[in-house]
Write a structure and sequence with these properties.
148 residues, alpha+beta, 6 strands, 22% helix
Length: 148
């Protein structure tokens, strides 16, 4: 997944703006995430182990799915220069290998005096919500922007 960068300044945001991406989850993604984070829980890595769990097979790390939200925030809405302030996450269902995760981030509130945006974040597989939450990000203004 390679997302083209789009940079929005605070004054370009409006309530209701949204951005969507989709990502097919590969076994190699899960293995790479385990290597990167050190989370080698066998529910993610061992089909033999995971088959004996209520999930009946390997599932993706919850924070792998959440990292797809970060991809939207850092590359598309609002884009480069956005600073994560907080994130809530509510995991609703597992994500499995070969699932396609659809991520939607939507602006729900703007706080001009702090250049902050509150965003709803929903990840779904087919029509089932697998993760939902809210993020607060500090958004660059035109006069204070990295690279200027």
């Amino acid at each position: 997944m390679f997302l083209e960068l789009r940079n929005l300044f605070f004054d370009e945001l409006s309530v209701g703006m949204s951005e969507r991406i989709s990502k097919k989850v590969l076994s190699s993604d899960i293995i790479g995430f385990a290597e990167l984070t050190g989370d080698r829980n066998p529910i993610h890595l061992s089909q033999h182990f995971a088959a004996k769990t209520p999930f009946g097979g390997r599932i993706a790390h919850g924070l792998y799915t959440a990292s797809l939200i970060s991809a939207v925030l850092g590359t598309r809405l609002p884009g480069p220069g956005a600073i994560y302030m907080s994130q809530t996450l509510h995991f609703r269902a597992p994500v499995r290998i070969d699932d396609t995760v659809d991520v939607e981030v939507k602006v729900v509130e703007l706080v001009p005096e702090k250049n902050r945006a509150r965003l709803s974040c929903i990840c779904s597989v087919k029509d089932e919500v697998v993760l939902e939450g809210e993020a607060v990000v500090k958004v660059p203004s035109r006069d204070i922007h990295p690279g200027n």
